[in-house]
What does this fold into?
Amino acid sequence: MMIPTIPTPQELLDKGFSRGKKQADLIRSQKMPKHLKGKRIEERRVVTSCQVIKDKLKSIIDAVPEIESLHPFYQDYIDITVGVDDMKQALGALNWAYGIITQLEKEYGAKIRKNPSEKATAIQKQAYGRIASVVNKIKKDLDFLDFAKQNLRNMPTIDFDATTIVIAGFPNVGKSTLLRQLSSADPQVANYPFTTKGIQIGHTERHWKHVQIIDTPGLLDRPVLEMNDIEMNAIVALEHLADAILFIFDASETCGFHLDNQYNLLKQIEKIFSEIPVIYLFNKMDLVEDREYLNEYIDDEENSIFISAIEGEGIDEINKKIDKIKKIERYAENEEEDDDDEYY
It folds into this structure.
């Protein structure tokens, strides 16, 4: 989401009033009756200041797309990251200020024209006071939009036409390393939890099919309602994007989490996303001497692969599974239903 640079109230007022003064100075250089010139100067200051401030507010409002028109993934991403309701409230406040300043432009322009010339300056100062009051009232909304700009500037670009594979699992189980093996991505890889602070995307071509692979932040073994914002980004990716899930177990448990906890997380994900196929990856097998104890965590032997992502072992098997994945046309059906409704 491209949010333009957000000014502070003082910056907005300074720009408006400065432009108003420049336009007024142009009137001063013109020849006209003295009793008209004074009124024209102050009217131009007020009208120009209002128009400059309104133009900036409108450019911000127009630059932010209507949230309801975005893909559900982006709607949820914005809600998790900054809050959809807060975003709407801030944009609504700017729209309110735009409307009030439009009224002040008309009101004080008419007052200056109708009153004697000697009152024009006083009316202009009164108008500036009202304008400043309106702009200062939206300070918290401008501050919020600046906050939203900073936090949404790295919002991922998703190809919704591609077959999308989402990598999920506990922190530090090897998700980023696997992403690097499967795609063109070069994510940060480090040996500590929550290396992945946001969604990372890799791309590859498999038999002329575009495949998008998404590395999600590490999830913890706890209910969705108790998850933090980083974990919720992963849930959003799974919910709206996944045509299949690569769930990674750290078979060595060197990630710091017992296999029981990892298995519980898997069961929770399978319950929430029951219609999405899951491929089970047992990673870090280069560190495992005895594989027998893993049998109790294997529910589907056909879809379970033993790998070592760091060594590149098992990658070919994963790719063969990816080749068989079909894209889930979630939204095509909804669009067809919407089209049908138009006839009734």
